[in-house]
Design goal:
Layout (H helix, E strand, L loop, with lengths): L1 E5 L4 H12 L3 E6 L10 E3 L5 H7 L5 E4 L12 H21 L3 E5 L23 H18 L5 E7 L1 E3 L6 H11 L4 E2 L5 E6 H10 L6 E7 L1 E6 H12 L8 E2 L1 H18 L7 H8 L7 H5 L8 H12 L22
Parallel strand pairs: 1-2, 1-4, 2-3, 4-5, 5-6, 6-10, 7-9, 8-12
Antiparallel strand pairs: 9-11
Length: about 325
C-alpha cells in the first residue's frame, strides 16, 4: 500500500515513517520541513494548500494526517483554525480529486476538556482551548467526507499526551525538572493522567490503514493511568533522584505565577516554560477510557513502566544506574531495555 503521510517530519511522524518502512509500505511524507531521516521520500508543502496536497498525493491509497498547530503559545489564535480545520478541508479535497478512500486522522483527547474523569469516545466534548476546538471541528470535516460514500474508511485516533525517545514535550520537561532536583509540586498531585508511548501508538496508527469501511473513533492511552504523585515517584526512582524538598505550591498560587509569566511573555515577546494554561493542565485530571481500543484486539508492544524506562534511559542516560547480577553480564547499551 502507498501511504501519504502529512506531518511526518516531527517526533511521532518520524517514528511512524520508520514503522511504515519496516512494514514495507511505500510512502510520501508531506510536511513544512523535509524529514531528516527520510528526505528522499519527503515533499515540502503547506497543509492549507489544496493544490499542493493534490499534486503530492497522486497515486496513493491512504492518507495519515499527523499535522497540526498544537503548541500552547500559538499566535495568532486563528492559526489553529487555519491549519487544523483548513488543512482538513484541503486534505479531503485532495482525497476526492485523487480517489483516495482511506484516511487516518490523529485527533486529541484535549477535545474532552479538563477534569473529565475517564472520558469515553461518546462523552460530550468540552474543549477548553482553541487547539481542542479546532481538532473537534476537523473531526467533523473528515466525518462528513467519510459519510458521503459508504466505501470510504475513516479512522480517528484520539491520543492522550504522547512521550518517548526524542520528544521534548510534557513528560520530558517534567523528567528534566525531577532530574535537576529542583522540582516543586503544584497542587496535591492526586490528579491522574493518561499517557501514550510513541512506540505503541505508531504501531496502532499504521495498523489503521487496513481499517474497514465506515468511521471508527478510538481513544489511545497506555494503561494503567498514573497519578502525578505516582509518576513523579517512578521518575525519581528510575533516575535515582531523591526529593530535595517536600514543599508543595498551592494550585491557586501556581496559576497566579503562570499569569505572571504570561504577562512577561507578552511584554518581552519571549516564550517561557511556565504559563497559566500549562499549570492548569499539569494539575488537571486528564484520563480517558480505552475500552474500545481494548475490545478491538489491540495489545501494547511495551508496558507503560517499560516505556518510561526506555525513554529515561535514552534521554537521561547519566542518571540511570544498571547494576549487573551474577547471572548476567553488564549491559553496556545506552538503553538497558
Amino acid at each position: 500500500m502507498k501511504i501519504f503521510v502529512v506531518g511526518g517530519s516531527g517526533f511521532i511522524g518520524t517514528r511512524l515513517l520508520e514503522t511504515l518502512h519496516e512494514q514495507n509500505h511505500q510512502f510520501t511524507n508531506f510536511d513544512r520541513q523535509i524529514s531528516a531521516k527520510f528526505a528522499d521520500q519527503s515533499v515540502a508543502g503547506d497543509i492549507r494548500s489544496t493544490e499542493e496536497l493534490t499534486a503530492a498525493s497522486v497515486g496513493h491509497d491512504a492518507i495519515i494526517n499527523l499535522a497540526a498547530e498544537h503548541r500552547d503559545d500559538v499566535s495568532p489564535l486563528s492559526l489553529y483554525t487555519e491549519v487544523n480545520v483548513g488543512g482538513a478541508h484541503a486534505l479531503v479535497a485532495a482525497a476526492e480529486a485523487n480517489g483516495i478512500r482511506r484516511i487516518i486522522f490523529t485527533s486529541t483527547v484535549a477535545l474532552y476538556g479538563l477534569d473529565k474523569n475517564n472520558a469515553a469516545e461518546d462523552s460530550v466534548p468540552e474543549p477548553f482551548n482553541e487547539y481542542g476546538r479546532s481538532k473537534l471541528a476537523a473531526e467533523g470535516v473528515f466525518s462528513e467526507w467519510a459519510h458521503a460514500d459508504p466505501g470510504r474508511s475513516l479512522a480517528i485516533v484520539r491520543p492522550s499526551v504522547v512521550f518517548g525517545e526524542g520528544n521534548r514535550g510534557n513528560v520530558y520537561n517534567l523528567a528534566k525538572q525531577v532530574s535537576s532536583g529542583r522540582f516543586l509540586m503544584v497542587g496535591k498531585g492526586e490528579n491522574k493522567k493518561s499517557m501514550a508511548y510513541v512506540g505503541n501508538i505508531v504501531g496502532y496508527i499504521a495498523s489503521r490503514v487496513d481499517a474497514p469501511s465506515g468511521v471508527e473513533i478510538r481513544n489511545f492511552a497506555d494503561k494503567p493511568d498514573l497519578s502525578t504523585n505516582e509518576l513523579i515517584a517512578i521518575l525519581r526512582n528510575e533516575m535515582n533522584v531523591h526529593a530535595a524538598s517536600t514543599l508543595r505550591l498551592p494550585l491557586t498560587l501556581g496559576i497566579a505565577a503562570g499569569y505572571v509569566f504570561d504577562a512577561a511573555a507578552k511584554i518581552t515577546r519571549r516564550t517561557f516554560p511556565i504559563s497559566a494554561v500549562r499549570i492548569r493542565k499539569f494539575a488537571a485530571d486528564t484520563t480517558v477510557n480505552t475500552d474500545r481500543l481494548r475490545d478491538s484486539g489491540y495489545t501494547a508492544t511495551y508496558s507503560l513502566q517499560e516505556a518510561l524506562k526506555r525513554t529515561l534511559a535514552s534521554e537521561f542516560p547519566a542518571t540511570i544506574v544498571v547494576v549487573p547480577t551474577a547471572k548476567s553480564a553488564p549491559n553496556t547499551d545506552r538503553n538497558p531495555l
